[in-house]
Amino acid sequence: MSNITLGIELNRIVRRCETVCDAACCGLEAFDFHPIHMASALLGFADRDPAEVVDSVERNLRDLELLAQNQALDEFGDLGWSEQLNTTFTRETLSQWIFTIRNCLMTASQLLAFSESLGFPSRKFGST
To answer: Rounded to whole angstroms, how far apart are CA atoms 8 and 55?
Structure first.
């Protein structure tokens, strides 16, 4: 079984969603994949534009999709293990997870745009 590794930005955003429990205990059940958590995580990249981070995460998600398409399954029909999420993925569950992350990121981006339209800039106080 292969190791499914999240990129740095994706892992950081996903960790912000680890609000229900600890992944080491509950696996995917430890996460509340909600756009509010993801929007907050995007703002945590102080030195980068949120859209740039989303682009980087999207590249990581595409890489995971390629892995799901090309990786051989193990004898149990599993695709791989993610130590970061403490879960085993099948092709189907990884595809569903990627779909969820994409939808939340898209909505998080919309939340940030709406927030900016209300006068709340995405940059930290004092930045240019």
So the answer is: 13
